[in-house]
Amino acid sequence: MEPPDCKKCGLLSKENQPVPDDGGDYTILACGESPGLEEVRQGKPFVGKSGQLLRDALRQLGYPLDQVTYTNIVRCHPPDNETKPIHVKCCYRSLPIKENTRLVLLLGNIPLKAVLGESGITTWNGVRVERDGII
């Protein structure tokens, strides 16, 4: 797999470092668009308001939070929170799927387009797609 092309993307800077996956042993992968400023500050995905909202929703649905890991299609924070196609092209290579991953949540249009090549997130709301034993 080819590494991200940070120089062509233009987002990488001393103040805007890539936010890595939070790793660990997980069965659920939550994939967002790009990190916010708080995520860049802490160096961890989904630690800001959207992350708290997601964790609250997952908890209410009965998902074990210790089995969830978080990632983004683009690893650096884009200006004005606007992820552009060049950012996705330069940064996204593949999802960090592990052997025991059973569920992938694509959280938004950009993850949907990058991973499945589809668009129109609202029409995909609640749709289950199974590939290689992963929903």
From TrEMBL:
<dbReference type="InterPro" id="IPR005122">
    <property type="entry name" value="Uracil-DNA_glycosylase-like"/>
</dbReference>
<keyword id="KW-0479">Metal-binding</keyword>
<dbReference type="InterPro" id="IPR051536">
    <property type="entry name" value="UDG_Type-4/5"/>
</dbReference>
<dbReference type="InterPro" id="IPR036895">
    <property type="entry name" value="Uracil-DNA_glycosylase-like_sf"/>
</dbReference>
<dbReference type="GO" id="GO:0006281">
    <property type="term" value="P:DNA repair"/>
</dbReference>
<keyword id="KW-0004">4Fe-4S</keyword>
<keyword id="KW-0411">Iron-sulfur</keyword>
<dbReference type="Pfam" id="PF03167">
    <property type="entry name" value="UDG"/>
</dbReference>
<feature type="domain" description="Uracil-DNA glycosylase-like">
    <location>
        <begin position="27"/>
        <end position="118"/>
    </location>
</feature>
<protein>
    <submittedName>
        <fullName>Putative DNA polymerase</fullName>
    </submittedName>
</protein>
<keyword id="KW-0227">DNA damage</keyword>
<keyword id="KW-0378">Hydrolase</keyword>
<dbReference type="GO" id="GO:0051539">
    <property type="term" value="F:4 iron, 4 sulfur cluster binding"/>
</dbReference>
<dbReference type="GO" id="GO:0097506">
    <property type="term" value="F:deaminated base DNA N-glycosylase activity"/>
</dbReference>
<keyword id="KW-0234">DNA repair</keyword>
<dbReference type="GO" id="GO:0046872">
    <property type="term" value="F:metal ion binding"/>
</dbReference>
<keyword id="KW-0408">Iron</keyword>
